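Help! Submission page says 'invalid entity' but I think these are all valid:
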Amino acid sequence: MATDTQEQQQTAGPEPAARPRRGGQGQRRRRFVRRRTRKRCAFCEDKALRIDYKKVDLLQNYLTERGKILPRRATGACARHQRELALAIKRARHLALLPFVTEHIRTS
Amino acid sequence: MPGYELVFIVQPEMEEEPLTKLVEKITETIGDLEGQVHQVEPWGKRRLAYSIKKHREGLYFLMQIELPSSAVRSLERSLKLMEDVIRHLIVRTDETVAK
């Protein structure tokens, strides 16, 4: 699926070292720069922020445009909280609070 | 008795009166299973993220309940048998068990 790979490129966290682009003007290589400090887990930072399958607005931030769960490298969540997030999203999906697949993509 | 959270979705064409009856019936079922309903929180009509049984909307209800753990399956079974309930979820709430 061509569109699928496109999305993955969009959502991948740190930009991988750019391959020389074909057909572009000039060769602008973007260098891979590692973040100085790793992004801290938002849920460890703020203990009051609970992961709950009912908080649709919160969970929405952790989905791609197509409704897939974002990987850890994109969310910055620690292992435990990523696990909790995934579970909450799956529960929300069961209750049709969140989509399994986004509407416009399914119908096309 | 452990605490649970019950969310169920009722099909959207339900009128006011049978709706309250249905909620009562569920409350009764929980009572029959020696459970207790602590709180009922209607969320109202919401758009479903995808259609369930051809319905694009649903009436959501959240209940905080207490139930003997052995009775969860029978509650789940009776919810499945109610045709107007198009989806439900029962989740344990007490944190001590969850962690």
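Support: the input was valid. A stray whitespace character was the problem, and the output above is from the cleaned input. Helices of chain B lie at 16-32, 72-81, 95-98.
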